[in-house]
Every structure is written in C-alpha cells, then in structure tokens.
Amino acid sequence: MPAPDTVRSPQRIALLAFPGIRAFDVSVITEVWGTDRTDRGVPPFDLRRVAADPAPVPMRGGLSLTPDRGLDWLDRLSGTDLLVVPGLDDHVTPAPPPLLTSLRRAHTRGITIAALCGGAFALAQAGLLDGRRAITHWNLVDLLRTHHPQVTVVPDALFIEDDHIWTAAGTAAGIDLCLHLVRTAHGSEAAATIARSMVTAPFRTGSQAQFIEQPTPRADRDADALAAVREYALRHLQEPLTVSDLATRAGMSARSFARHFTAATGTTPLRWLLDQRVAAAQKLLERTDLPMPEVARHAGFGSEITMRQHFASRLATSPRAYRAMFTGTTSAGAGAGGRSPIAR
Questions:
Q1: Considering the domain boundaries, does residue 171 fall inside one?
Q2: By the 8 A CB rule, do 277 and 299 touch?
Q3: Are 90 and 181 part of one and the same domain?
Q4: What is the pTM for the complete model shown?
C-alpha cells in the first residue's frame, strides 16, 4: 500500500475565461492539462473553465468557450493548484472588475498564477504586476510599459516568474511556460510525455530569447556543426566540458562559436550547457536514489555545492527539496520505493 503522502488529488487548473481571450492560448492550456494521458504515466489534472457568468465567452473567429465553473470556484484552489490567464486580443480595454478582484484574492491566498502572452495586461490591471518583473510578446512590450509604468517589463525572454506570478511571451512561448509548469510540479518525464504528444520541444528555458536569427543557406555548414556539438555535449554532460572545448570541436574560435551559437539557439553556450545539466540532474533526482554527490557528478556539475547553486538560481529550490517532491520523503539516500541506482 502506498504511503499516505504519496497519494495526491489531481492538481486543479483554472482557465480564466472572459471576452477577448485568444483561442490559441485556450487550446494550448486545454491540450496540456485537459487531455487524459494517465495511461502514459502523466498524472491526472482537473481543468476547469472559470468565468464570471455561465454565458459562452466569445473569442475571435466566431469561436466561443462555455464555462463550467463560476469565479467562486477559485476559492477552492490550494497552494498546489494553478490559475492560468490566456492571452488577449484587446490589451487596453479593462477586464471585468469581478475577474480582477478574483485574481487579487487568489494571489493573496498564495495561488500560483500564470499569464500567456497578452494575459499579462489583465494581471497588470489587477495591480498584481506592480513592482514586479513581467514579460509579454515582444511587439507588446512598449504598450505594457506605457499603460502600466509600475511594471518592470523584461524586454526579451520566453517566460519569467516573480512572487508566484508567471508571465510568458507570445504564442509558442505559452507552450514552453505550460510545459515548464508541468515539469516543476510533476517532473521532467511528465512534461516530456506531454511534449511528445504535442510534437513540440520538451525543454526551452525561460531565459532564451523570444526570437532568434535564422541561419541562411550560406550558414548551413555552421548550423550543422553547432547541432553536432550540442548532440555531443548531451552525450558527455558528465565530463568537464567548457565552451572552449565545444568551440574547438566545432572548428571555430571561442568568440565566433559563441556568436553563432547564440544566433542559432537564442541563448549563450554556457547558459545552454548549464540548463542541460540542470535538466539531467532533475531526471536523476526523479528516477534514481543516487546520493547527491553522484547526481552532481553524473550531471556534470563536479560538486553538490555547484549543483545546489544552479538549482537555486534556475528553479528556486534545492536538489533535496526537488527530490522530496517526487518521493514523498526528505531522505536523499537509497531505500524506499525500490528504485534502481540508475534508471535508464
């Protein structure tokens, strides 16, 4: 019989619906949390469409969304649940006052809130972004700054978090944020399974640029070399790789390699390498009973202290706390669950 603390109720996801929300973002939220994938090991979710009244919510293109819960349902959410605001077609018209009040109440109660694309404007209208960092679609950055000067608008990122409030850039970045929220709550395997079914990238970090310079035909050779180097790095993460090592393998100077790498991926070689090592460590913490120093070594950090520093800066948690989320214990040693030392 499983331990009582390993039996969890489905995470509740509230999709906040009101006139003007974008159909694409509604579809993304529904695809990530509204599709049953329990037969593939993904935990169950309880996704509800929440609105101020039960009338169908109009969306662009002749579409509509029928709510199945009222705003009072948000009072049932707990600290492990999630409130998601889709992007908007109209970024200036005020949102309904009851909706803004519900957003403020949810944040006061410690509920995690995520806004996709222009959904950040609804959070800003509620005052939730005052004095906090936020991001939106690159084409809306100046508009957000103009209408909400109290917000610290980050000019170029895929998604960021400040005080349990997540905001994301446009369109595909909303997918990245939704998968990141699944990964944070339920692990990399669950997020990767959902990503595979959606035929999308399973892991793009929030710090990556919103758009990148696309290689031209003349740059195909460099692009191929960079792809081969990234593949090599992923197979040898446990080795003490440096950016200089990768540049040499690509046949470039370190400076040229860094420039081409950033243009092709939207992030620097060092940041990419560290992100991949964090992701590898996450998988080991979820799937194995390896001691922390061994997790750090297999992920290429060299020491548990270094791994802990990067977990704190990227995930706002420690490796031990991260493992505890998936084992129901605070022990880092082998034992409960019968997991193998290395799960391949």
A1: yes
A2: yes
A3: yes
A4: 0.72
